[in-house]
UniProtKB/TrEMBL annotation, chain A:
Component of the heptameric LSM1-LSM7 complex that forms a seven-membered ring structure with a donut shape. It comes from Tremella mesenterica. It comes from the Eukaryota. One of its GO terms (cellular component) is ribonucleoprotein complex. Keywords: Cytoplasm, mRNA processing, Ribonucleoprotein, RNA-binding. Component of the cytoplasmic LSM1-LSM7 complex which is involved in mRNA degradation. This is U6 snRNA-associated Sm-like protein LSm1. InterPro entries: Lsm1 (IPR034104), LSM_dom_sf (IPR010920), PTHR15588 (IPR044642), Sm (IPR047575), Sm_dom_euk/arc (IPR001163). GO terms for molecular function: mRNA binding. It holds the Pfam family LSM. GO terms for biological process: deadenylation-dependent decapping of nuclear-transcribed mRNA; mRNA processing. It is found in: Cytoplasm; Cytoplasm, P-body.
From TrEMBL, chain B:
Binds specifically to the 3'-terminal U-tract of U6 snRNA. This is LSM complex subunit LSM3. Transmembrane segments: none annotated. It comes from Tremella mesenterica (Jelly fungus). SUPFAM superfamilies: Sm-like ribonucleoproteins. The keyword RNA-binding applies. One of its GO terms (molecular function) is RNA binding. It is found in: Nucleus. The gene is LSM3. Residues 11-95 form the Sm domain. Belongs to the snRNP Sm proteins family. InterPro entries: Lsm3, LSM_dom_sf, Sm, Sm-like_LSM3, Sm_dom_euk/arc. It comes from the Eukaryota.
UniProtKB/TrEMBL annotation, chain C:
Transmembrane segments: none annotated. The lineage of its organism: Eukaryota, Fungi, Dikarya, Basidiomycota, Agaricomycotina. It comes from Tremella mesenterica. PANTHER family: SNRNP CORE PROTEIN FAMILY MEMBER, U6 SNRNA-ASSOCIATED SM-LIKE PROTEIN LSM2. One of its GO terms (cellular component) is precatalytic spliceosome. This is LSM complex subunit LSm2. Keywords: mRNA processing, mRNA splicing, Nucleus, Ribonucleoprotein, RNA-binding, Spliceosome. Belongs to the snRNP Sm proteins family.
């Protein structure tokens, strides 16, 4: 049984317990917090959680607290290197400012997406919608 | 010959079985097509290919909202696992 | 099970996992499970400027269902063995289903 542990979901998540982690969700959201517990479906519980919003090299944090994540919605869970974290050239700005920038980008992208889909449909490629729908 | 063919292909994946070791064409979600040598597959259509050429069809939209026909971005991989849920079709490639 | 076994043979090798959101993560394969969830150590990301959130991440767990490709070196794979295993796998499925075996 012991030999099988590296080949189970729990085998790969066990060393993340009590570590600061970044979680990427299927809709593209990035969640940062302390990884506390999990099960065989990769459902898990996090503490001291924030949602981090990114726009180019700027970010803003939105407080969440305690979070239970359903495994189905997870893309990846990564352990954050606490030393490397301080060296990253990212600048913190307010949630309001970052939301304005993100919304601007999304509006432009959504408009272009419709045009792209129309062209690609003629070449036999079906549309898949926004980030997250592709999974 | 026809009998042999009828006996060998009794379910869809049998066509894929006949392509083992041969060059195949794959259409994928995300506006992609691949060609490569097929080495493995399973019932989910997970695949392993070697000497792969990937073509991604990309449409650039100009500032004025007009779009040209898709341009193709090519990438090559020596060995590639492809997850079955992205696969739309697998077809033997006649050379 | 074929691909689970296949990935087990790749443990401790450097592979690149390309996700369906176009993020490409290169690292050492540490473990894999039956869902083809993947654990990578010592990771680097292609195009880090586009993915600033990954800059401080050193190792990660990737859910199998979000993977598009896994890229690896041709030398890490025995293609003859893979083709045999694929044919045998097909054979076993047919035996289990009680179908005719060619």
């Amino acid at each position: 049984m012991e030999a099988l542990i590296p080949f189970t979901t729990s085998g790969s998540l066990v060393d993340l317990v009590d570590k600061k982690v970044l979680v990427i969700l299927r809709d593209g959201r990035k969640i940062i917090g302390v990884f506390r517990s999990y099960d065989q479906f990769a459902n898990f519980l996090m503490e001291s959680v924030v949602e981090r919003l990114y726009h180019k090299m700027e970010y803003a944090d939105r407080d969440i607290g305690i979070l239970l994540v359903r495994g189905e919605n997870v893309v990846a869970v990564g352990e954050i290197d606490l030393i490397a974290e301080d060296l990253i050239p990212l600048r913190e700005i307010s949630v309001e400012n970052i939301m304005t920038r993100i919304t601007e980008d999304n509006t432009k992208r959504d408009k272009d997406q419709i045009i792209k889909e129309n062209v690609l449909r003629e070449y036999g490629f079906v549309s898949e919608g926004r980030e997250g729908d592709a999974y | 010959m026809e009998q042999v063919a009828a006996g060998t292909i009794s379910e869809p994946l049998d066509l894929v079985k006949l392509s083992l070791g041969e060059r195949v064409f794959i259409k994928l979600r995300g506006d992609r097509t691949l060609t490569g040598n097929l080495h493995a597959y399973d019932a989910h259509m997970n695949l392993v290919l070697s000497q792969v050429e990937e073509n991604i069809h990309i449409v650039d939209v100009g500032e004025d909202g007009t779009a040209a026909p898709p341009r193709i971005e090519r990438r090559g991989f020596e060995m590639l696992f492809i997850r079955g849920d992205s696969v739309i079709l697998v077809s033997p490639l006649l050379e | 099970m074929l691909f689970f076994s296949f990935f087990k043979t790749l443990t401790d090798q450097v592979i690149t996992v390309e996700l369906k959101n176009d993020l490409c993560i290169t690292g050492t394969l540490k473990s894999v499970d039956q869902f083809l969830n993947i654990r990578l150590d010592g990771i680097t990301v292609e195009d880090p400027e586009r993915h600033p959130h990954m800059m401080a991440v050193k190792n990660c767990f990737i859910r199998g269902s979000v993977v598009r490709y896994v890229r690896m070196g041709a030398r890490s794979v025995d293609t003859t063995l893979l083709e045999d295993a694929t044919r045998r796998g097909e054979f076993m499925v047919r035996v289990l289903k009680g179908l005719r075996v060619d």
